[in-house]
Structures are given as structure tokens and as C-alpha cells.
Write a structure and sequence with these properties.
Blueprint (H helix, E strand, L loop, with lengths): L1 H5 L20 H5 L2 H5 L3 H21 L9 H16 L12 H22 L1 H7 L10 H13 L1 H25 L9 H35 L3
Helix pairs in contact: 5-10, 6-7, 6-9, 6-10, 9-10
Keywords: ATP synthesis, CF(0), Hydrogen ion transport, Ion transport, Membrane, Mitochondrion, Transmembrane, Transmembrane helix, Transport
GO cellular component, one term: proton-transporting ATP synthase complex
Membrane topology: Multi-pass membrane protein
Length: about 220
Amino acid sequence: MMSNLFSIFDPSTNILNLSINWLSTFLGLLLLPYSYWFIPNRHFFIWKFILMKLHNEFKTLLKNNYFQGSTFIFISLFSFVLFNNFLGLFPYIFTSTSHLSLSLSLSLPLWLSFMLYGWINNYQHMFIHMIPQGTPSILMPFMVLIETISNIIRPGTLAVRLTANMIAGHLLMTLLSNMGSIIPSYLIMFLIFIQILLLILESAVAVIQSYVIAILSTLYSSEVN
């Protein structure tokens, strides 16, 4: 039962045991035509409205560190994670964001680049950032230790937050679907109703988690200057 339950997160297939399910990560680039994004239509205007809202918010967070195109990285991160989160809600499609190997490969390079840039170009600011203003002298060594640990675990918390939320929702949906064969027939409609509500909830989680990882990455970027 448990092996069947967690098999939905298995990237391997029955074709020579290859991990070709990871190709679903880039499925949108193959399926969505070029005209879908650039010929003005209803989808184009909705998506453009969302991107402009994100651009203005990220621009505000970056403050004096903003330069032309700097928000593009975080908007692209939001779009990539959002697409893969939504893709995993469809039947028989692999959810790549439910694996730490993907989420950590997104958060770790970003965090590492922010840290390297900050320590190379603004090392005084980075040292000052470790000790909040007004900290008593006796607590300064502990604050440096706490801030250092907090900085180090940032990419891990970003990755684990995204992965855990994706796994939890998919496991719950799988458990409910497996109950269809064991519950009385008069409860089937109630079970379908619960699954629809859960699917709506998971759609909201997909958007929220995409926004969270993008907004936190923006905040981490603004701290290094």
C-alpha cells in the first residue's frame, strides 16, 4: 500500500527504468505555441496583468538595488514553479516540484549567488546585518551565531517548504481516491465533493507556494546591499 502511495512521486518509468518523467518540467515550452503568449488575447492580458503586478511588487522590495530587468529572474522563478505545481495536479503527470532535487537546485544557486555578491562587494554591510541595532554586547556572539545559522539554512527552508506542501496535498488526494473502492456507494458523491474542494485548495497552494519562493528570494536579494 505504501509503495503504491508514494509511487506517484517516482521519477522513473517502466521504459528501461529511466527518469524521463523529469521531461514534464519543460512540457510547457513544447505544448504551448509561441502565438499563445504574444498574440493579444484573453490569456495574454490576464498573464500580463499578473506579471506587471509582480514586477511592481518586486521592484518595491528591491528599492535602491533595482535595475532594469532585475525583477525578471524572480518573475521567471514564479512562472516556472507555478507551471510545474499546476501541471502536477493533472492525472498521470509527474510533479517535479515535489522533489528536493529540483526545489533545492532552484533555491541553492540563488542563495549562493546572493551571498557571494554580498560578501565580495558589501562585506561591511553583511557584518553589520549579523548584529541587530541595540543588541547588548554580551549577546553579540550569540546573535552572530544565530544569524549565521539562519543564513545557512535559508536555501533548505525554501526547498523543503515547497516540496513538503506539494507532497502533503498529493498524498491526501491519493489517499482519498484510494478510499473509493472501500466506502459504501451512497458516500461516493460526498467523496467526489471532498476531492473537488481539495483540488481547489491545492490549486491555491500551487499559486501561494510559487509566490512565496519568489518573494522570499527577492527579500534575500535585497538584504545583500
